[in-house]
Amino acid sequence: MPDSLALARYLWQRGIPGQVYFGVRLDPFAAHAWVQHNEMVLSDNVNVVADYTPVFRL
Questions:
Q1: Which of 46, 32, 39 is closest to 4 using CA atoms?
Q2: Where are the domains of the chain?
């Protein structure tokens, strides 16, 4: 999460509207955060993010 927030802040300061997504998976339980710009995942591998269901977007 700290890396995602840092990247989002970097983007926001440059006028790029990146969004931080927080997601979970249930089996086994895990939580994850990543940054997207529109549909493009910027901070992670798409295959990793696909395992999580977004529950909050900042």
A1: 32
A2: 2-57
In order along the chain (58 residues), what is the average pLDDT of each group of 10 residues?
A: 93 94 96 95 94 96
DSSP 2-52: HHHHHHHHHHHHTT---EEEEEEEETTEEEEEEEEETTEE-SS-HHHHTTS
Residue 4 to residue 8: CA distance in whole angstroms:
6
pTM recorded for the entire structure: 0.88
